[in-house]
């Protein structure tokens, strides 16, 4: 829930993004709890900005990642 608050998106949205973006990989703790590292939060913020503010589609974000890499994607956040 802390990551969801930091990103500004509900927890279920973060879990959905894990299924759509292979580069979103939180560490799984005991009991299946997810732990998002600080760099994960930066990437998630960039995804939220690209989808909700810049108007990209999920496929658009995937294409941006494929063409420019994770560092360029994170720079949008």
State the gist of this model.
The protein is mainly α.
Give a quick set of tags describing it.
77 residues, 2 strands, 64% helix, mainly alpha
Number of strands: 2
Order of SSEs, N→C? HHEEHHH
| Share in β-strands | 5-15%
> What Rg is obtained from the alpha carbons, in whole angstroms?
12 Å
Largest sheet: 2 strands, antiparallel
Query: What value does the average pLDDT take?
Result: 92
For the largest beta sheet, what order do the strands appear in spatially?
1-2
- Count of runs of 4 or more consecutive helical residues: 5
What distance separates the N and C termini? 19 Å
Q: Would you mind describing this structure in some detail?
A:
This protein is mainly α. It is 64% helix and 5% strand. It has five helices and two strands, in the order ααββααα. Strands 1-2 form a two-stranded antiparallel ribbon. It starts with a helix and ends with a helix. The model has no long low-confidence stretch (mean pLDDT 92).
Q: How are the secondary structure elements laid out?
A:
Elements: H1 2-7, H2 11-20, E1 27-28, E2 34-35, H3 38-53, H4 58-68, H5 70-75
Antiparallel strand pairs: 1-2
